[in-house]
Amino acid sequence: MAVVLYNFQAEPGNNELSVREGETVTVIDQAVGGGWIAAQNSSGQSGLVPEGYLLVSMLGLLCAAPAGQKGMNKHKNIKCFSDWQWRRKRFSNVNMSPGAAEDDNSEWDDDWDDQSVSSYHGNGHTEEEGGTSGRIAHGPSVKISMNKFPFSKGPNPEVFLLAKPLANSRDRLPVYQGEVGPVWLYPTTPLDCIIADPKKESKLYGLKSFIEYQITPNTTNRHVTHRYKHFDWLYERLLEKFGSLLPIPSLPDKQVTGRFDEDFIRMRMERLQAWMTRMCRHPVVSQSEVFQLFLTYKDEREWKAGKRKAEKDELVGPMMFSLIEPEAPELDVVQVEQKCEQFSRFTRSMDDGVRELLNVGHTHWKRCTGPLPKEYERIGRAIRNLSTPQKDLYFLLETNSEYKGLLGCFPEIITVHKAAVDKMKEADRLISAGKISSSDRKCMNQRVSCMSYSLQAEMNHFHSNRIYDYNRVMQCYLEQQVTFYQQIADKLREALSRFTTL
After folding, report:
1. Range 187-212 average pLDDT
2. Where is this region: Disordered (predicted)?
3. Engineering a disulfide at 40: which of 46, 97, 394, 414 sits with its beta carbon 3.0 to 4.6 angstroms away?
């Protein structure tokens, strides 16, 4: 038996079962997989229900277990029961929809997604700050990266400062001195990809349905196919590997209902395209092995082998700084700290500006797509077809949503660098305490300098992209505005021509 924790509306044709909060259902099969449970309601109707929506009792688990396994699964069932208690507490303490929670099962097969925080919608509806994902209103919309090292619970720079480098020469990330300061080495042929042709596919004899996208990189012109769960896997790998030195913005969040709606699929594809384009434009991410695997795998065997290799990668988190190979000598720590503080102030100020622009833009969009067209209809027959520009705010708001995610990544990156600088300043005390030697101190100075080069290269990459993106989006916005008001002028001239001079 199981108690329903939340209302769930079944998608037609997906073998799902609609349930209501507080309802009691019978567990038919808990081993369906993919985050689903087969259940039957009191009316005798059966189907699939998301496992996070049910609180399965120990009796229900034992009854649902295959014959001969009830005794063996006793302790496992108790653990599952406590897991669901934890889930219920988690959902009750956080203002979020149940579908937005992360599934503990890494093999989930659903294509669930929530709209991104404070995102723009073509139908004029917007979400409030924090939205369905339950994030804090003024917090960064990013996940916290964790290291695989057992002695490091977070992005601890000591992992890099005091450990032996694991990198070999072919993995090096060179940093050069450009006109604006340290810059990454950019590939001679910029990487790009096109996401198109979304198709609804299914597996497990139609029990599981999902949208599959076709992705074509410009380097091979050969398309590969991926589901949203594969994009999410890539995001997790990039965040784990590069999260200490590069901003990895979040994907569009998970959604429970309406995931097969045409407008949602179109919006999802556009946002995945924007995310992939930004990753392709980054000289470090775009050339990484895991990103190249995502774009160029040849068959299912190569994809699975590449996934296993990426998941066992030890060069993650702060250890990625061991790959940095600066062209110039060590940097002055004081100057670097000043630049970091200046950049921090800039990103905080820009983040406030982006949020304000999003709020104003959403309000204006709702006004223009709500009562305003009705007011225009009353102006007269001569301008009855007049309407607001369709794409002027769209690109502006979407770009600001992207930068909101990017800006939320930098505080953690700067914090990692600051922690390394603080540790370097403690070098004299560590030497006197016999914890490190003079040669260790020299090595620490060199490694902190590598981290400083990496941070400044990323700052310059961010500014370069910011200038390009906002220049492009403002051009688009003004072009749309010019076209819109030109239409108004044409309509007014047409109306004027109807009146003769007496």
Report:
1. 85
2. 95-137
3. 46
pLDDT in tens, 183-194: 999 999 999 999
* Closest C-alpha to 267, from 384, 392, 180, 397: 397
pLDDT digits (tens, 9 = 90+) for 77-87: 333 333 333 33
Q: Is 86 exposed, middle or buried (0-12, 13-18, 19+ CB in 10 A)?
A: exposed
Q: What is the pLDDT of residues 315-347, one digit of tens each?
A: 888 888 888 888 877 777 788 888 888 888 888
Q: In this structure, what DSSP letter does residue 153 have?
A: S
Burial per residue of 54-81, b for 16 or more beta-carbon CB atoms within 10 angstroms, e otherwise: bbbbeebbeebbeeeeeeebeeebeebb
Percent of residues, the chain, with pLDDT higher than 70: 69
How far apart are the C-alpha atoms of 117 and 297, rounded to whole Å?
A: 32
Q: How far is CA 414 from the centre of its chain?
A: 20
CATH topology of domain 2-93: SH3 type barrels. (2.30.30)
Q: CA of 470: how far to CAs of 347, 397, 464, in Å?
A: 15, 11, 10
Secondary element (H or E) of residue 54: strand 54-56
CA distances from 446 to 187, 212, 424 (A): 26, 46, 10
Write down the domain spans for the chain. Answer: 2-93, 327-496
Please give the C-alpha separations between residue 277 and each of 238, 273, 280, 282, 317, in angstroms, as whole numbers.
Answer: 15, 6, 5, 9, 23
Matching residue, tokens 């995945």: 272
Which residues make beta-bridge pairs with 174? 325
Q: What is the pTM of this model?
A: 0.64
- Higher model confidence: residue 208 or residue 143? 208
Give domain 327-496's CATH number out of 1.20.1270.60, 3.90.1150.210, 3.60.21.10, 1.20.1600.10.
1.20.1270.60
